[in-house]
Amino acid sequence: MPLFVTKNSQTFGPHEPEEIAVFLGTGEFHPEDFCWQEGWAEWRPISSVLPDRPLRSAPAAVAGAPAMVTPPAPQTSGQIPSDIEVHGTLKLPGERTVTCYVDGEIHCPSTVTIAKDTRVKARIRAESVVIFGSVEGEVHATGRAVIKSSGTLRGDIHAARVLVEEGAAFSGKSHVNSRAPAEAVKTKEAKTAPAKKSPAPKTAPKAA
Questions:
Q1: 31-90, pLDDT tens digit by residue?
Q2: Against a cut of 0.70, is the pTM above it?
Q3: Alpha helices of the chain — where are they, by DSSP H?
Q4: Could you say which of 2.70.98, 2.60.40, 3.30.1490, 3.30.70 is the CATH number of the domain covering 3-63?
């Protein structure tokens, strides 16, 4: 069941446990942060839900878990509904998990997660991109791009960090720290290159 995560007085989610594991690996969430799901009477440390993630801080931090019947209202809706289709550009205001079909482009200033069993045919531009499903198109991330073991990407990646898990399917090229596609660089060079002058034709000598 999806979990909410509270950090620095903000609530994020809902996220699947596999997604939270990714964020733990990148340092965006910490094992001592607290999580909650429907039916729980209180918040619990992530380390107690995902025990393979050791605590970074002293156990005393866990003792102060706030008891809440319901979590604070999430700042984002978390997921794009799976019963819609988007044709064109999907602009997201913040972190989102995409569970619907998208044909076009996806723009986001934060993290975009493509859910498992979700297929998109789009160019993705975001801070971070995590792929559990299937993507056909280029991925441009100012931060990290992650293809999970269940994920498929047919297209190039332009990102500061790239992680392809064992079992993932990746057909394309990885451009780490690339600022522009190779085609754009070539076009710029072609415009700025000086024009070559043709040599002047030689005049044949006159017959005596």
A1: 888 888 877 777 888 888 887 654 444 333 333 334 443 444 444 445 566 777 889 998
A2: no
A3: 17-26, 46-49, 60-63, 182-192
A4: 3.30.1490
